[in-house]
User: What shape does this take?
Amino acid sequence: MLSQVAQGESQVHFRVHQFLARENEAPDAMLYIQEGWACRYRLLSDGRRQITALYLPGDYCDPQWVLGGLTSQPIVAITNVRALRLPCKPPAYASMDGQQGFWLSLSDMIERQSAWLVTLGCMTAMERVAHLLVELFERMRKAGLAYGQQCAMPLTQIEIADMTGLTPVHVNRTLQSMRAKGLIELQSKWLRIPELHALREAAAMTGQLSAI
Amino acid sequence: MLSQVAQGESQVHFRVHQFLARENEAPDAMLYIQEGWACRYRLLSDGRRQITALYLPGDYCDPQWVLGGLTSQPIVAITNVRALRLPCKPPAYASMDGQQGFWLSLSDMIERQSAWLVTLGCMTAMERVAHLLVELFERMRKAGLAYGQQCAMPLTQIEIADMTGLTPVHVNRTLQSMRAKGLIELQSKWLRIPELHALREAAAMTGQLSAI
DNA sequence: CGGACTATTGAAGACGTTCAAGGTATGTGG
DNA sequence: CCACATACCTTGAACGTCTTCAATAGTCCG
Assistant: This one.
């Protein structure tokens, strides 16, 4: 979408576990992720954590910032991240006219969030993990980062647990069960999906349109 | 916010269980809810249902429609609904300049959705139900529809179950447990919260800012 | 009054959690 | 290059929360 560094834009880098944004900040710029993964999350006082959004290459971070207000949740790098800094003075929606891609991005984020409400509210462990892996694969493919049936998958099982609302132990057992069924091959941060159709079925995503 | 019927606007009414919107429609107008409750939901092929948004008086239905695209989820009336029809031709963001209230509304909706991801991903049954009741009460109060410690609460236990990701049976037991602890009084569609502070604590909402 | 939906209660069972321990990678510094 | 530390993954056993199934009682409305 953005192929070169234009006026006011600059490249920034973040290392694993480094914050792209902290809580209650007034963001002055959005980030266009070029490489690496990041996530937004909420931490409860007793240590429970829920990841509420994932940012992959090609994503804006965070689209909702243009609506104004403070950042309500921190965003942290899951891998090393390279991004483009896009200055914006919220509420900056006026200046976004014609940036179809950006509004689509906001719309997509809301849509994904809705889909995750359904997943967390209705689905079994297997369906949740399957849903996550399908979503990741299809987003990576859309970003041109899938190679045949494979793509990078840098999430740890703890991070998968914090996304799916499960415990790390149960995520482990669920992944093994999926491996045993031949639904996925997952090792050394690399995911292969022999039959996407089968995995989508296991995710109760039949009938839903693919993200492609 | 809107006190009279202006150009192009018109009042519309919906009865309980009537659709405000169906799936895969191209919405040509937003609705500004004046009276009554409605909800957006997703239904799975095997009957599981997740309510993904609640629309109360003073809410726009649905803010994300201005971002364009088709409606991805149906919206149905929970009670009789009176609303104002606000024509808009998406993408209509350009014409929304200066409508601060509207953008705030979109921002609030995204914020609430994030909060519900946390609730569904991390919280116990008691915390989920408490969270829902606190949120409803504070939204009703904001709309000027709370009277002291009380407000209307037209949701059935089945609808509470579909919001919280629990079974109706367990919602029933949870509500009784909350009544036994003196956290709520709930009967004939009317909610009273003796000590909001205590209920917020039961909802693990301590430290979070009130919606007021 | 009758029918449909909603609320309540009990008992049994499943899915996921918790606790605990051991094993395997990964990276860093000496 | 090896030693060590840290983080991540894997496995087992016991437990708990929530579900499921089923039956009864209450409420609303034509």
Summary: The first strand of chain B starts at residue 10 and ends at 14.
